[in-house]
Prior knowledge:
Elements: E1 2-5, E2 12-16, H1 23-39, H2 42-57, H3 60-71, H4 75-78, H5 80-94, H6 96-99, E3 103-104, E4 111-119, E5 122-127, H7 132-145, E6 149-154, H8 159-172, E7 178-180, H9 185-193, E8 199-203, H10 206-215, E9 222-226, E10 232-235, H11 241-253, E11 265-269, H12 273-284, H13 305-320, E12 324-325, E13 345-348, E14 365-371, H14 374-381, E15 386-387, E16 389-393, H15 397-404, E17 411-414, E18 426-427, E19 429-430, E20 433-434, E21 436-437, H16 439-445, E22 447-455
Parallel strand pairs: 5-6, 5-8, 6-7, 8-9, 10-11, 10-16, 11-14, 13-14, 16-17
Antiparallel strand pairs: 1-2, 3-4, 4-22, 9-20, 12-13, 15-19, 18-21
Helix pairs in contact: 2-5, 2-8, 5-7, 11-12
Amino acid sequence: MQKTISPIDNQIYIEREYHSDKIEETLSNSVIAQRSWGYLNVKERVELLNKFVEDFLSKKEVVAEELCRQIGRPISQAAGELGGFKERADYMLSIAEKKLADIDVTKDNNFKNFIKRRPLGVVFVIAPWNYPYLTAVNSIIPAMAAGNCVILKHSAQTPLCAEQLYQSAQKTLPKDVFNFLHLNHKDGLKVVSDPRVNFVSFTGSVKAGYEVQKATHTKFIDMALELGGKDPAYARYDCDLEKTVENLVDGSFFNSGQSCCGIERIYVDEKIYDKFLESFILKTYNYNFGNPLKKETNLGPVVKLSAAEFIINQMNSAINKGAKKMIDENKFNYPKEHKNYLVPQILTNVNHEMNFMTEETFGPCVGIMKVRDENEAIKLMNDSPYGLTASIWTKDIEIAEKIGNQVETGTFYMNRCDYLDPALSWTGVKETGKGCSLSEVAYEKLTAPKSFHLRKEQ
């Protein structure tokens, strides 16, 4: 039995039976459905998928409360995820016909030579809980637009997200083009290793990512892995201080810091460090922290008691090595009886001998460190096993691009953070993973080339 504990009160919110006995049927049905779905032209698939998206978006109020209860995101913010869902789905569908079209390479009139982008088959998507719809849409929409069928396994924390998407698919898409399974870890890997699965998209921990990769060792398939992150920001001396602080506070603490591309460490030029820190602290105290079901709340609990324990232990380890807390937790009024309500915290006097500055934290806390210049900032930004996003805050776009070329990351921002543009490839380097989702590049990953060399006269 799969139990979802709500972070609001740490009580069971919903329970679901695992689908161990449905794996075989679901895989078989998906393979059969894909044959017909893949033969539809792209325009027909796009029209049906637009109806799928429209139906899902019509459930905004229901989805918002379910998200709040499943992951603890404030109800005032929960429905905002649907805006991002629409933006990403709309973009990927808008470019599908052009990017999936045949590539004509004919050289003379006696031949017809072209490359067709054929679907891979069945795509297995393993989605996380922290942005359950945004991470899912990255994979499921382009996969289906490309002619693949999708089986979604969502996190045990967010089973209702898979069910909501499935309900919309039942109304709008041919049978078995989109399916879902509630699975335990063992059965999830069983599906990954099944020869009928032709592509895997996984978002989760580094450890689990290696397990997913290992499970495919008996077959030749590609995959997209988005794993750990420790995303840095560099506030250069010439930045717009007020706007920089405002954006980085939000980038550090939104969704209680539980964002794949959230800011976990900030390097500030020594010329502006004191003013930056003072402003950052003041803005952090502006949060209404507490029960996420209340409309005035804009910062809620972290998702699990075990997550809270990990975050606290990592901070305490840094404090034992000399780091200092800058936020007085007594100035916030919140449900202290629940240990997963963590006050937004800033640590200073930090360094890279502390795991807090190099290993993923995934919580409402950030380290702020003074640097001499951009060279030191670049060195420290690269001193991490991860590389999803990084940002610089400056008025000089040439400097930004120069630094961006030296920072080891999948996406580099200037004067922006914690955002995903669907026209750009979403990818990472080092222990953050491999492959990509979104952008036109995603369609290359979700299809295989088939060449046609046709001579008209023998």
